[in-house]
Structure formats: C-alpha cells, structure tokens
Amino acid sequence: MNIALKRPGRSLAALAIVSTVVLAGCADDGGTDETTTDTTTATEAASDSEEGRGPITFAMGKNDTDKIIPIIEKWNAEHPDEEVTLSELAGEADAQRETLVQSLQAGNSDYDVMALDVIWTADFAANQWLAPLTGDLEVDTSDLLQSTVDSATYNGTLYALPQNTNGQLLFRNTEIIPEAPTNWAELEASCADIESDCLTLQLKQYEGLTVNTVGFMEGWGGSVLDDAGEVTVDSDEAKAGLQALVDAYENGTIASASTSATEEETNLAFVGGETAYAINWPYMFTNAEGETSEVTDNFEVQPLVGQDGVGVSTLGGYNNGININSENKLTALDFIQFIINEENQTSFAEASFPPVLASIYEDEALVEQFPYLPALKESLENAAPRPVSPFYTAISKAIQDNAYAALTAGKSVDDATADMKAAIEQASN
Predict the structure, then answer these.
(1) Region Disordered: start and end of each range (predicted)?
(2) 10-166+317-381 carries CATH number 3.30.1340.30
C-alpha cells in the first residue's frame, strides 16, 4: 500500500488537515459477492466508451475511515484503472462541512464522492453541488431501509446513496426494571418506586437535544416540517410531544443530569448502573457488555417507546453524494454502490457501523453476535430523518434554544413552539 500525504493550502489549513491515503492492490484476489444494486448499470446505460470513468477521490471524516479503508482496498484491487483515493477530512463535523463547502463553492472537483452527514444532504442538493441520481446515474434502492433513502432524498429526487445509518435504542437495566415497557405511559409508571435515576438521555444544548426533541414530537404524531416543507412545529401533536418531554423532566422520570448530558455522560450513567433506562446509540451495547460494566448480564435493548407504542428515532449516518463537477461520475456511482453490497455492509455490521442494507439485520450469525440488531432494525423502520431542509442548521438552533428554555427556564410549550416556528420561517425566507 502506497501512502501519500496531501496537505491543504493555507485557506483550508485553518479548517481541516486533509490527509490523502492512496490504497492500491492490498486486497486478496477473488470474486466479489452479489451487490445490492447492479454496478454495471451505469456503464450500460451511458455507452461503451470510457467517458465518465477513471480515478476518483473519496472524502470522509477521519473518525470513521477505518471502516471504509478495507473496502477501498478491495475496490482498488479489482479496478486498477479506476482507483479510489481516500481524502481524510477533520474528525469534527463542522470542519468537515466547511472544507467541502469551500471546495464546492469554488466549483472544484477535488472530491468526486463525499460522505455527507445525513443532515447536510438537503443543503448540498439545494445548492446544486450534488449530481442527482437520475438518468444514467439512476440506482435501485429497493433493498435499502426506506428511512435511509428518505434521508438522501430532496424535493422528491435522490441526491445521494445511503452508506451507513444509525438509530437510537432504549436500554433497560433488568435488575431495576424487569419488564419492557410498550409505550411511554408504561415507562413512566415503571419508574414510580425506584431509587436510582429513571431515564437518562441527551438534553444538553447541542445537536443531541434537537435529536431527542424531534423524536418526542414525531413519537406523538407531530413533525417540524410537513412533506411540502411547511413549518408544523406548532401543531397540537408536536406540542404534545414536547410537553411529554418537559413533564417527564419536571416529574423526575427523566434524570435531572440529562440537561447537561451528551452521549458519553449517558453511556457512563447506564454502564455504571446509575440509571434504569437510557436512550443512546447502538455503540453503548458493547460498553454495557464489557468487563468493567455494572450491567454486563443485566440489560436489554428495544426500540424507543412513544405515545401509542414504538417511538420514533431520528437518523444518523452518512450519505454518499457525487460532486456535480466530477469528471468520473460513472466510476463514482459504481463505487458508492460497491460500498453497499452484502459483503461490505456485513463488514459494517461487524464493526458496529449500522448498515443500510435491510437483509443484514436478518443474518442469523450476525444477530447471534450482535443481539441488538433486530431492535435496531425496528427502530430504523420507524425512524424519521431530521428535518430535510437546506436551512437545517438554523432549524436545529431554533429547536435547541427553545426546547432548552422549556426544560430549564420555565418557558411554556406554546411559547417555545411558537418561537421555534418564527425562527424557522425567518431562516427559510
């Protein structure tokens, strides 16, 4: 494997250090598994010429590139004339986004394929930075979890291909709460007589608060935006969801420490046996099983609970978008389809990197190794993307500011949702 370091220019250095790793000829010889989608479709649909094919660069935040490097190695071994170069972006999401935006605004083709946080997809599509996956770039997504496809769709058009996903789970300490609740009322009732904290989740004023606020609103039948993009955050259903969250915090169902908790504080509280329930991402399962865990053999997971049954998780993960200025879009398309074939999606599951290929969640060997997979699949099937909008950053801030005030400063739910609506409409006009 040849490794080269490519340093960004002065203007990019302040945003991120981008290291480029050239991965060639490192995989074993042999055939590949059947892919989820036909990776020859783009070639046949276009022409028999080599136009649209050649080496490409794939940009991704460095925190997760360990999962993609083996896949790039396999691709490069099989496609020596269409080699993929990995460009590692900064680990911090905002720095990744700024690096990509600066390049795209300049009309550059530095990055042919970009691993986009799901909340960026609509923004990048609205700015016409992504090639629509239509016509010669059309792809079959029928084998993917529908919620992940929805997260990559803007105004009815698919602009990226889901790579991996993430959904929240409800973790329960079975020594404290033996029976699983089937709805929110049962969860609250189960906490009535316990001495430990009941439920810990992320309500600190950051993106985690947006995730959980939107989840409660959706779990009570509401939404932040409707399908037409109209602001509905002040609907009766959305208000009911936020009211349930505020009431649970005030009555002690939700631990008081939650308003200063991120995922890691939640993890420490549950793994340390300090809370009966926790809402967190699947990575916590491995920690809860660990040798130093206080709940090693005494916990279970299930989908979130809502007003009437299974609740609504918001989605995490990456969508892979193709740069509108890429000269090798056909190679880019084949590569992002290669990432979601059965073999590669299985490798994601084995690395606790939730896959988007639905069949992986029914693999008996994987389920035995990762018992949370069935619960995660149900969570993802009931999940909702965070508001799909090019103004997502402003939407998230409006939700955070007002939900936090409702939780900690006595702001009424009516006022909080009215102010959310006003701020969101101002940002989008």
Answers:
(1) 27-58
(2) no
